[in-house]
Amino acid sequence: MDPRGSFHTYPRVDKLYKQRGSLNFDIVRTRIFKDWSAPENHDLMIYFIYALIGISTGLIAVFITGAEDEFSKLKARITSDIIDGKPENMVLGWLFFTLFSTGMGFISSVLVAYKAPQAAGSGTPELIGYLNGINFSDFFGTSCLVVKIITLITAGVAGLCVGKAGTYPYLGAMIAMGVLYLPIKGFEYFHNDAHKREFISCGMSCGIAAAFGAPIGGTLFGFEISRPNTFWEVSTTWRTMLACCLAVISYSLMKDCFHPLKIENWVLSTATLQFNDVTYPDPTVLTIPTALIVGSICGVLGAAFVYLNTLVQMFRR
Fold first, then answer.
1. Which of 21, 72, 116, 137 is least surrounded by CB atoms within 10 angstroms?
2. What mean pLDDT value characterizes the chain?
3. Contact predicate 210/245, CB 8 Å
4. CA 147, CA 138: separation in Å to the nearest integer?
5. Closest Cα partner for 284 from 265, 257, 260, 263?
6. pLDDT digits (tens, 9 = 90+) for 119-168
7. Using only C-alpha atoms, what is the Rg of the chain?
8. CB 203 within 8 A of CB 174
9. Is 152:109 a contact under the CB 8 Å cutoff?
10. pTM strictly above 0.85
């Protein structure tokens, strides 16, 4: 077997990893950078960037989900109209369904192969490398972001097995990079590898949070993927958590634009639970106090478990 295609041979025989440079973290430690006046309200601007990353990721995620649903419904509706309940039209309906799906898959393949080859994979291995200091100069870009958005829609409509766990973190990372280059005064201060790495880890976390509606899980995912991390601080955790919450909230609110909805239940309408064929009704505003109480109790129980587990491990040692 050719060792270049083996996952069990390390280091790689073809030495592809040696063709990549390293990110430059030294610039933020130089006297010139330190003496360069930071933008006014530096800390507030950092929170503003985090918020923009979270909201932007949520909005693009809901656009992808909504477009995929609408195209899938269109495919199903046209197929149903062709068949029209007549058995003799089954072959024609199957033919349209197959050609429609194949065409969507063909669009995805062409865009990835000829426009943005770096969008072919999930992007998670490259993100791990980037967060640990490897420079992927062609990994982030507008063309790659646009291709990723389009191909996620077309691949989903085609019925291909494309999951969200790998693709959405990469999508969020590209959104974070794009937010940094918005024409907003003061953003140029963060155009360095050290700050980019921090914001990209936030975008990656927001991608997971928007995909699964899990802000805590998204934050922990970003922390885990960036290990061994030298830049992750306690403040980074809370800012990332804030961005993930905004991503989930913006996704939940805008998702309702694709469905008719009563205005009084707009805010909490997406928090439905589904188990098999049982669908619980949408919660109301009165659900908030109950959720706060349950969350507080679970937090106290979790803290008690951690404390007791620490004592047990100390005794065991």
1. 137
2. 81
3. no
4. 14
5. 265
6. 887 888 888 888 888 887 778 888 888 999 999 999 888 888 777 777 88
7. 23
8. yes
9. no
10. no
